[in-house]
Amino acid sequence: MSYSLPLMKASRSDAAFRPLQALIESRIEDGLIPGAVVAVGRAGGIAFHRALGRRALLPRREPMTPRTILDLASLTKVMATAPLIVERAVRGELSLLDPVERHVAETRGSRVGAIPLHHLLTHTAGLQADNPQEDFAAGKSSLLARIAREPLEAEPGTRFVYSDVGYILLQAVLEQGARRRLDRLAEAELFGPLRFRDTRFGIREMDRSRTAPTERERGAWLRGRVHDPRARSRALGGIAGHAGIFGTAIEAARYCEMILNRGRIGSRRVLAEETVRAMTTDQCGGVAGVRRGFGFDIESPYAAPRGRLFSRNSFGHSGWTGVSLWIDPESDAYIVLLTNAIHPGGHKDLKLFRADAATLAARALGARG
Fold first, then answer.
1. Are 61 and 147 in contact (CB under 8 A)?
2. Considering the entire predicted model, what is its pTM?
């Protein structure tokens, strides 16, 4: 069963969001993005929801629709991996001070194995951003053993290096502890309770036609297969701690609503309030001048989706394919902006676009910064 967020009965009409819509339409016209689905709202519901432009330009033009499914890329980190890990810590099933090797057998006796889990969550573990792609050529156990042998770029806790490797290790912590795959854990503990229909690792065949394509690989368009090459490798098979989730803007908005409600959706609790607090408040202790929660970005080189009006303590995340979300408890507001900007010709720099969109969304909701 899918769930539709209520439309807010706000005094502000769609007229307040016309500048935001005009911005998105101008970036489509400029060729920065083929199309977008945007959802702006508060804890009580959606104030603005639009699909604009195209979800596909090649091999044929297709309109973007509110129900278009997009590759959510690194939103996987904050919509699946991080909450599952932190929730287990809150329940006492593990400690975020635990070294990786306590949970991942392949890392025992290595420098990687000695890294505390909390450094993986904040990208302060000293790991490289991406390990070599050849590490992914065999099975998952082989991959983890290879990661354990990779040299560290810095001593844990001394530098911020945004790293997918850390979230692959967190995936292993979850899977080896529960003896279940990450996709099944996410479905049972997050997506099911949130009543998601379309947000999942991968897609169902019946939904392929409304899924936005990304880039072409070996003559075929990636459509419903995760864009990240490491996530779709033989070792991970499309289910990875750093990427792999597909979903719609309306369901990402529902996730934002749950976070704004401190882990509840309606009368149902999805995450402990302590889990949400740990994910959304600074856990870095001043390392390298960044502020990140156990999952969410607060202030770092990747914080452009905050814009210029959301508060300094707002938080969010973005993804390589062109997706982002940002949440501000002080304004009781969020923006979800999903695009497939890498279609058809590759990655684009969306920093200014995301910042401008967030600023206009905040202004439309009356945020003053």
1. no
2. 0.95
